[in-house]
Write a structure and sequence with these properties.
This protein is mainly β and 177 residues long. The protein contains 2 helices and 14 strands. A hairpin with a 4-residue loop joins β5 and β6.
């Protein structure tokens, strides 16, 4: 995609960032104030649905890290068929209690439903998170997970969610978050 088209896409879209707790994703359906939590199961990925109403160009995937950074993370975007569109690949978790943004090649997402995905290779790493209230709430909102998903695979088999913790993460069309 050339820079003129990328600029035009940015101007047309009112969205700058899509996050796991914003209106394009779960929004007001979370039930707690953000906090800090360890990752619930090593090498397990969580998949958070989001909807795009108009074309969106993503250039960064990001995660709000917690008070302990450890090991590696992999952020990605999947289509509604659970096929990977993009992934950051195994990346060292860095930046205590800070947003870690990882650049990707400009990716045009057309209107539709997608999943943002996060896998962490250990259980001592911490992320900033909110809560779905209970596991059933998360399941009815479309949240899913997959065990043994580090690094993020090309195709996933989505399984029922087993945690109420929802990492604060997302994608953005800016180079900074």
């Amino acid at each position: 995609m050339d820079s003129a088209n990328l600029r035009d896409m940015r101007i047309q879209s009112g969205l700058i960032t899509i996050s796991s707790i914003g209106p394009s994703s779960l929004g007001i359906h979370t039930r707690s104030t953000p906090g800090d939590s360890t990752w619930f199961q090593g090498s397990t990925a969580i998949f958070i649905p989001f909807r795009i109403a108009e074309p969106f160009v993503a250039i960064n995937l990001w995660l709000f890290n917690g008070s302990v950074v450890n090991g590696n993370i992999d952020l990605g975007i999947y289509d509604v068929r659970a096929e990977r569109i993009v992934s950051t690949g195994s990346t060292p978790q860095a930046g205590v209690s800070a947003i870690q943004a990882i650049a990707i090649s400009a990716l045009l997402l057309k209107p539709g439903v997608y999943y943002m995905a996060l896998a962490i290779d250990n259980i001592t790493a911490r992320t900033q998170r909110t809560s779905t209230g209970n596991i059933c709430d998360g399941r009815t909102q479309g949240l899913a997970q997959m065990a043994a998903a580090f690094p993020l695979p090309a195709t996933v088999v989505l399984a029922s969610l087993t945690t109420t913790n929802l990492p604060i993460m997302g994608l953005t069309l800016r180079s900074t978050v």
